[in-house]
Structure formats: structure tokens, C-alpha cells
Amino acid sequence: MLKKLSLSIAIIILCVSGTSAIADEGGAFVTFKVLKPEVALDLAKAALASCRKNGFQVAVTVVDRFGITQVTLRDRYAGAHTPETSRRKAWTSASFRGATLELAGATKAGSQLSGVRFVTNALMAGGGVPIDAGGTMVGAVGVSGAPTGDADEACAQAGIDAVEDQIAF
């Protein structure tokens, strides 16, 4: 049963992943890209502004490709729970390499993958979006506080779109 679940988790990660894994066996080091703090901040500000424009008070968290927080912004009237919720959405998106709205559907109660919801810090609720730069995931953004996961995700995507010219390579 555990092997079946592990295989199922691996399959979902591959299915929702927008990145391909290519092993480079030459050398002892791995290189990777992460956002500069200034770009992460620009992304968070743009996501917050998008939500504000729609009348939503939210928190936005940007994490690097490993799920480590780079920036968290909380609007003045956003709920006390929103910074932690946005962080968990961003972490989940980075960790599972997919949008949390898609993961929410794939891991719903009764599905073979529902057990993934019990992973510590995982939050399968819309609003977490991976940040892709040239086919490589460089981080993720999480938004919390809009009335729906769809609205949280739209604000997250607006943040990514706002820095697209800076992260394209």
C-alpha cells in the first residue's frame, strides 16, 4: 500500500510539474537559480496590488525553489491567519511543483492521493503557484485572504506576470 501511495505521489508530481528533470552526471556540484530578493519583493507587491484592485485584503509569500521564505507581505486588514496560510500554499506549490488549486482537486477526500494532505505544512487550497523561468521552477508564490482559491491564484499569477520580463531567460 505504501509503495502504491509513493508511486502515486511521484506520478502526480510529474503530471503537475511544468519542469523537466535532467540529470547532469558530470561534476560534483549542482547549479540552480533562485529569485533575487528584489524580484521576489516586486512579485509580492504586484500580487498584493492585484488583490487590492479587486477589493481583497491578503497576505503574499514568495519562497525559493526549496520552499524557504524570501518575502511575506500582509495587507493592513488581512486576517491574522493569512501570512501563515500564504506561506504554506507557497511551500506546497514549491514542494509538489504544481499549482495548489490543481493539487486540491487531485488530493480530494476519497482519492488515492488524499493522504498527501497529511504531509506536514502541505496546504492543498488554491492560491499557490510555481514560478517558472525558462522551463525551470525558481520558486513559488502563495496568496491568502481573497474569498476563493481561484481569486488567490489569480492574484499570485498577476504577481508572476508582473516580473515576467525580469525572470525570462
How many structural units, i.e. domains? 1
Beta-strand residue percentage: 15-25%
- The CATH H-level homologous superfamily: Haem-degrading domain
CATH classification, class level: Alpha Beta
Please tell me how large the radius of gyration is.
16 Å
Which whole number gives the mean pLDDT?
88
**CATH arch. level architecture:** 2-Layer Sandwich
Separation of termini?
42 Å
Q: What is the share of helical residues?
A: 40-55%
Give, in spatial order, the strands making up the sheet with the most strands: 2-1-4-3
Overall outline: globular
Could you name the ranges where pLDDT drops below 50 across 5 or more consecutive residues?
Answer: 1-21
CATH topology group: Beta-Lactamase
Oligomer: single chain
Structural class: alpha+beta
Number of separate helices:
6
Order of helices and strands: HHEEHHEEHH
| Main pleated-sheet profile | 4 strands, antiparallel
Number of strands: 4
